[in-house]
Design brief:
Elements: E1 4-15, E2 18-29, H1 44-51, E3 59-64, E4 67-69, H2 74-79, H3 97-101, E5 108-109, E6 112-113, H4 115-128, H5 149-157
Antiparallel strand pairs: 1-2, 1-3, 3-4, 5-6
Bound molecules: adenosine-5'-diphosphate and magnesium ion (MG).
Adenosine-5'-diphosphate binds near residues 20, 41, 42 and 43.
């Protein structure tokens, strides 16, 4: 199997007269951490938003595991194994730890949220990351609610490949 998991080929994106991306190509390999560096306005966020299914590119191709894909929306991106952590993350203080972590991707069967499964999954995730917290606790009462834990937790909950 190829160790190339995700490829961006010759992507372009303009916003009116602004050229955000012009012929961008990128190759992500299995098991590596890649860093995208660039000055303000270089187009980093635009590229990530394209991969997250928030914007469509004007041209170019995205190839996942050797197959060209058109990422239709954020849910489709997640289904392809692409999870995104944005700088801003809102939490609902009156929802529980588990509900916040699994918001919008709750484990479900036949369209019904499986609360007990969500709590089990949440407990396992907290243990994996070494966080002592109760999945049932309301976030407003968590002493560790600030900082980057939430981003990590929520991202991990998607079981992303990247
Ligand atoms: N939604 C948008 N509408 C118009 N212009 C945008 C939009 N998003 C980004 N841009 C422009 O595209 C360029 C790249 O922006 P961005 O991807 O945010 O860069 P970076 O994240 O590297 O700072 C900038 O000139 C920015 O002003
Ligand atoms: Mg940015």
């Amino acid at each position: 199997m190829s160790d190339i998991q995700l490829e961006v080929r010759d992507i372009a994106k303009t916003f009116g007269a602004v050229v955000a991306l012009q012929s961008v190509s990128l190759t992500l390999r299995r098991g590596r951490v890649h860093t995208l560096l660039g000055e303000n306005g270089a187009g980093k966020s635009t590229l990530i938003k394209i991969l997250a299914g928030l914007y469509s590119p004007d041209r170019g191709a995205i190839v996942v595991d050797g197959h060209a894909v058109t990422i239709r929306n954020p849910a489709h991106a997640r289904a392809l194994g692409i999870a995104t952590v944005f700088q801003e993350l809102s939490l609902s203080n009156n929802m529980t730890v588990a509900e916040n972590i699994y918001a919008n991707h709750e484990p479900a069967r036949c369209g019904f949220i499986r609360n007990s499964q969500m709590v089990v999954d949440c407990r396992r995730l907290l243990a994996e990351l070494g966080i002592e917290a109760d999945p049932h606790q309301r976030v407003g009462r968590c002493h560790w609610r600030t900082g980057n834990w939430w981003k990590l937790l929520r991202r991990s909950a998607f079981q992303p490949r990247w």
